[in-house]
Design a protein that fits this description.
Blueprint lengths: L2 H13 L2 H8 L3 H15 L4 E4 L2 E4 L1 H27 L5 E7 L4 H4 L1 H10 L3 E7 L2 H9 L5 E6 L6 E15 L20 E5 L4 H12 L5 E6 L2 H9 L5 E4 L10 E4 L6 E9 L6 H23 L1
Parallel strand pairs: 3-4, 3-5, 7-8
Antiparallel strand pairs: 1-2, 5-11, 6-9, 6-10, 6-11
Helix pairs in contact: 1-2, 1-3, 1-4, 2-3
Length: 300
């Protein structure tokens, strides 16, 4: 039994398609199929039912899959530990980030990290919090950047920053030129909110709760870009974090007059997960960039 055979088997199980699995593993489809057949011959059991172009795991395959994945994870972990002992700053870091953080927080930081650490590859997955936590538990991610706090004793969290919340209004709104606003002042306005599953939805609703406001929700979306476009069109008002504030003529961003109106952003890792030099370097890079940004904001 060869390591590459286990990789190919897991790739087919993940994609449910031999062609897509071959593309993912950068091998020809006949070569991948042949290696999977050899694995089945060695195990003496059929791992897949071939249903035309699609494939499905047999009961034998269902039993074998978690064991194959565990073996590959252990080999990857062992490689990381050897590189750690050798003092090599190279390897791969698997990072998750929620959609209300990833497009604002990561691009510049990923670029500067790549310039500094040319031998470390950072792969990013953007997903909502429950999906990222599941991937952390499965060791499919090294860390995830999300809103804190996170429940569960299996995780360790490190706060990176706290950002204030803003009310976003169309330019013609009666409160658009105010220095700050109380949410109670918009109790009769139509309200735009992120959909269920996005943790910032809870930040917005918590701010409304502190203000004793029951928001009149008329529209829900999965991303801030859509909400801002709807605000610009005069559909309603909304709440966004500081990192989503933009310089634009069709929206006004006014700070909330609420000291508790902020979002905590941090890094979440599995408590027992081995932390390689590459992972530690990336985490320190994030911390340093946040400190640098904070210093610049204070200076300005």
């Amino acid at each position: 039994m060869q390591v590459h055979q286990l990789r190919y088997f897991c790739a087919v199980a993940s994609t449910r398609n031999f062609t897509r699995a071959a593309e993912r593993e950068h091998v020809s489809q006949p070569s991948l199929s042949q290696q999977v057949l050899k694995l089945e011959d060695e195990l003496g059991a059929k791992l897949f039912d071939r249903l035309g172009r699609a494939v499905q795991l047999t009961p034998f395959g269902e039993v074998f899959l978690p064991r194959a994945e565990a073996i590959l994870r252990q080999l990857s972990q062992a490689k990381l530990e050897i590189e750690e002992m050798a003092g090599l700053e190279k390897g791969r870091v698997l990072v998750g980030a929620i959609p209300t953080i990833a497009p604002y927080f990561l691009p510049a930081r990923l670029s500067s990290f790549a310039c500094k650490y040319r031998h470390i590859q950072v792969s990013v997955i953007e997903e909502i919090t429950p999906v990222l936590l599941k991937k952390l538990q499965e060791a499919a991610l090294d860390m995830a950047i999300m809103a804190l706090p996170i429940a569960g004793e299996t995780f360790v969290c490190q706060e990176l920053l706290r950002e204030p919340l803003y009310l976003v209004l169309p330019p013609t709104h009666r409160l658009a030129r105010h220095e700050s606003v109380h949410l109670k002042q918009i109790e009769n306005d139509s309200f735009l909110l992120l959909k269920e599953g996005h943790c910032f939805r809870e930040n917005a609703l918590a701010a409304c709760g502190r203000a004793k406001l029951q928001p009149n929700v008329v529209f829900e979306s999965g991303q801030f870009a859509t909400i801002l476009a709807m605000v610009a069109a005069g559909t309603g008002v909304s709440i966004v974090p500081h990192m989503a504030v933009e310089h634009r003529e069709d929206c006004c961003f006014v700070p909330l007059a609420d000291r508790g109106a902020f979002r905590r952003v941090g890094v979440v890792q599995l408590k027992q997960h081995f932390r390689s030099r590459a992972q530690r370097a990336f985490l320190e890079h994030l911390r340093h960039s946040v400190r640098h940004d904070s210093s610049e904001q204070l200076a300005s």
